[in-house]
Amino acid sequence: MREFQDKVVIVTGGSRGIGKEIVLAFAERGAHVVIASRKVEACERLAEHVRSTCGVRALPVACNVSDWGDCDALADAAYDEFGQVDVLVNNAGLSPLYPSLVEVSEALFDKIIGVNLRGPFRLSALIGSRMVADGGGSIINMGSVEAIRPTPAALPYAAAKGGLHLLTEGFAREYAPTVRVNTLQLGPFLTDIADNWAEGARERIEETVALGRCAEPSEVVGSVLFFAGSASSYSTGAVLRVDGGWR
Question: Active site includes 79?
Answer without folding.
Answer: no
